[in-house]
Amino acid sequence: MIDLGIIDRMEVIEDLSNKASKENNIRKDLDHMYESWKQFQFEIVPMKNSDSTIIKNMETCINNIDESLTITINLVYSPYKEVFETEINKWYSDVFLVSEVLENWLKLQMNYM
Fold first, then answer.
1. How far apart are CA 76 and CA 112, in angstroms?
2. 105 CB contacts (<8 Å, ≥6 apart)?
3. In this predicted model, what pLDDT tens digit does every residue of 51-97 receive, in sequence order?
4. Is residue 1 in a domain?
5. pTM of this structure
6. What is the number of structural domains in the chain?
7. Residue 97 belongs to a domain with what CATH number?
8. What is the CA radius of gyration of the chain?
9. Residues spanned by the domain of 50
10. What are residue 45's DSSP bridge partners?
């Protein structure tokens, strides 16, 4: 290591290692969120005495949205996001859209109850 001059470059190597570790954590966070949504299923059930339907597991869905938005916002402000910036921005936009749609659905659902 001394003959190759690696010791003299230790700070650069540590910085690269730290950056790679942070980028790996971002990848894991994104993959975790993708997987949680892949496994999520909306439970749409008929509303009593109506032709309408309601989302039965709304609380679970809201929790999933809140968790995804919290993680994604943290990723948006991460100094290590550069490699994933487009993916993070797209994911944020998608989750935010789902949040808005469900918020409006919940308002409608509450009006019918």
1. 37
2. 55
3. 878 888 888 889 999 999 999 999 999 999 999 999 999 999 999 99
4. no
5. 0.80
6. 1
7. 1.20.140.100
8. 21
9. 7-112
10. 54
